[in-house]
Design goal:
Belongs to the glycosyl hydrolase 9 (cellulase E) family. The protein is mainly alpha-helical. The protein is 47% helix and 5% strand. The protein has a domain of 347 residues: Glycosyltransferase (Alpha/alpha barrel), CATH 1.50.10. The strands form 3 sheets. It has a 5-stranded mixed sheet with strand order 2-1-5-4-3. Strands 6-7 form a two-stranded antiparallel ribbon. The protein has a two-stranded antiparallel ribbon with strand order 8-9.
């Protein structure tokens, strides 16, 4: 890339040359605008909103949708005639279903992003808090009926058969729930984690009454999840699978929720619960909407490092967090992930950038922990990873996503000069209500799906599934494994971008 000097930046660039030399100027010109990317990454969540949109809505091409969610209620076995208000929340990806399991995880990660790096968000902190609250308001509704936790709104098969705007939806909005008779510990515990993590955020930013309300509900939902143990796969599997089937079991969500409740309350009950159940957390190299194991170890490592309590001695958190780091770093002899030629980490399955963003976030959190105790991670042989090395890894993944890759392409929509144009996203790919008021039915959207034209609505901030392992991206709407954005790709990316906004250099 050549050096480009814009007229309105002449004075600033000249000053950089004077004080830092030409090499600093060139390096800055090749850098990324993390603050701009942060702003867009949070804005994306506004486009994923379901329900009655507020007057402050900035993604104005989106309109109200799914205003009758809760009219059809199913608990896994029987239909009921009564209704419940389930308006609101987020669409998880490019479809119009509300999957509460990944939605709750996305809310947890937004909350952790703000808790960890909120001081670096500047004016975007306000929007970050709004993003969390849009999630928690819905999750409070989803846990408002005693004896039930609502797990999903919308029949995924009819929804995926149609290519419709959320504003036009006429597919079934059946509600699926778990109960003491038909348990779903993973979805219930993840909601408890989201509410507990969010209560910490709102307490920190002086919304004390709301924080207390979230924490009270989190306590109740966790008790429900633990008392009535079982996977929602067993009763709701025909509707939640294969979309968000629980492949890793529910024990990790129970410990994850207990960890957040302990962090929020310091209640020794939750610490005892963690000690009694941590043996169930075995997948130290996994973290995402399904498996919380690496996140648990990183989260609890901070508590261990800051405590002198004998009850923390010989606990597996730090060793397992170290194992996680060593399972990812390219130079580690125990590495278990793959890398593209361009440097992007890969794990099996679709939406690969969910791993890059989530792992980068954990690396930054753990680097902060290691810095405080002046410690490195020993990966064996000559592979010793300093906190700076962890930050360098996270930066390499963030920068790849933002355009430092062989295709010179940003995988965040609307960031940079070249980014995905034909993403797998119904609302983005169909004319907005402002462009076409007339109803577009199920089959009517097919021509827009098949079109080679760019999506008419720019889904600012959306991070897609990303390129293949050969660093190639086809930019095809039908290639959903690579072209579909999700909330759980973006949520940890918010925290990573916040960090690099105030720490652009890993040193």
């Amino acid at each position: 890339m050549g050096l480009i000097i814009l007229n309105n930046n002449n004075a600033r660039l000249l000053m950089m040359v004077m004080v830092g030399g030409l090499s600093s100027l060139i390096e800055r010109s090749r850098g990324h605008d993390y603050a701009d990317a942060l702003s867009k990454s949070i804005l994306f969540f506004e486009a994923q909103r379901s329900g009655k949109l507020p007057p402050t809505q900035r993604m104005t091409w989106r309109k109200d949708s799914a205003l009758h969610d809760g009219d059809q209620f199913l608990d896994g076995a029987s239909h009921f005639s009564h209704k419940v208000d389930l308006v609101g929340g987020y669409y998880d990806a490019g479809d119009n279903v509300k999957f509460n399991f990944p939605m709750a995880f996305s809310t947890t990660m937004l909350a952790w992003s703000v808790t960890q790096f909120g001081k670096s968000m500047g004016t975007e902190l306000k929007h970050g808090l709004e993003g969390i609250r849009w999630g928690t308001e819905y999750l409070m509704k989803a846990t408002s009926v005693p004896g039930y936790v609502f797990a999903q709104v919308g029949d995924p098969y009819s929804d995926h058969h149609c290519w419709e705007r959320p504003e036009d939806m006429d597919t079934s909005r059946t509600v699926y729930a778990v109960s003491k008779d038909y348990p779903g510990s993973e979805v219930s515990a993840e909601i408890a984690a989201a509410l507990a993590a969010s209560s910490i955020v709102f307490k920190k930013y002086q919304q004390l009454a709301y924080s207390a309300s979230l924490l009270q509900r989190a306590t109740m939902v966790f008790e429900f999840a633990d008392k009535y143990r079982g996977s929602y796969n067993d009763r709701l599997g025909q509707w939640v699978c294969p979309f968000y089937c629980d492949y890793s079991g529910y024990h990790d969500e129970l410990v994850w929720a207990a960890a957040w409740l302990f962090k929020a309350t310091k209640n020794p009950y939750y610490w005892k619960y963690i000690n009694d159940n941590i043996h169930n957390v075995k997948n130290f190299g996994e973290f995402g909407w399904d498996s919380k194991d690496a996140g648990i170890n990183v989260l609890l490592s901070k508590l261990m490092i800051n405590s002198n309590s004998n009850s923390l001695k010989n606990k597996p958190f730090i060793p397992n967090a170290d194992k996680f780091i060593c399972s990812v770093l390219p130079e580690s002899p125990s590495r278990s992930v793959s890398y593209s030629q361009g440097g992007l980490m890969f794990k099996p399955g679709g939406s690969n950038l969910q791993h890059a963003t989530a792992f980068s976030f954990l690396f930054l959190v753990y680097a902060d922990i290691l810095k405080k105790v002046n410690r490195n991670v020993d990966c064996g042989g000559k592979a010793s990873a300093s906190p700076t090395r962890l930050i360098q890894f996270a930066k390499s993944q963030v920068d790849y996503i933002l355009g430092s890759n062989p295709m010179k392409m940003s995988y965040m929509v609307g960031y940079g000069q070249k980014y995905p144009q034909r993403i797998h996203h119904r609302a983005s790919s169909l004319p907005s209500m402002d462009m076409q008021r007339a109803h577009i039915d199920c089959e009517g959207g097919s021509s827009y799906f098949q079109s080679q034209n760019p999506n008419p609505n720019v889904l600012l901030g959306a991070v897609v599934g990303g390129p293949d392992i050969n660093d190639f991206y086809a930019d095809s709407r039908s290639d959903f494994a690579h072209s579909e954005p999700t909330t759980y790709i973006n949520a940890p990316f918010v925290g990573a971008l916040a960090y690099f906004t105030s720490h652009p250099s890993p040193n």
